[in-house]
Amino acid sequence: ATAGKSISQNFGATTLNRSLDPKGFDFRESCDSPSNPNSTPIMIFVDQTGSMGQLANDIIQTGLGIIMGEVYNRKPIPDPHMLCGAIGDARNREVAPIQLTQFEAEVLPLGTQIQQLFIEANGGGNGGESYALAWAAAHFKTKCDSQIKRNKKGYLFTIGDECCHSVTKEEMSHYLGVTVERDYTAKELLALASENWEVYHLIVKPIPGDPVTKQWD
Length: 217
Fold this sequence. Notes:
With 217 residues, this protein is α/β, with parallel strands linked by helices.
């Protein structure tokens, strides 16, 4: 259904969908069930700022089906539950620098939610994006049976082409609905997320020696 369509056709939202706004829910939950008794949560966040908007379209058109197909066919983990999200630039006071779908076990309901993401296509000019908001969301806004019942970490991926901003307590409150006492560095939020998640970042077109690659190294 998405093949051959433009970004605006696949992502028609012109503002933040309230169902994807972290301020509107307490937690995103990955729960065991009779059909998924050993649920394993996977979170994939894509940079939706101007330089990266096309990647979001590529993922909805081809990447999502490949990812979920390979997970089910190769079975590296049991009972995958996948959540997808979009990341922007909180420092530019974007409307929606962090958005999250539900955890889903099937591609069609997940794909429907992904198409509701607001591709804001802003950012830029300040040396980074708010990838650390994804780590904050993973720590403060998820509840997963694999971690609670089995002490097994989930998997968290962010995809982008910039350096990573720290997150202020005002940004935590404004964008996540989370009250904290102080600002957090990106390294501190990475450490918090790593308590329950295996965390990976994929740099789009990394250049050896480039400031972006150096920071992530």
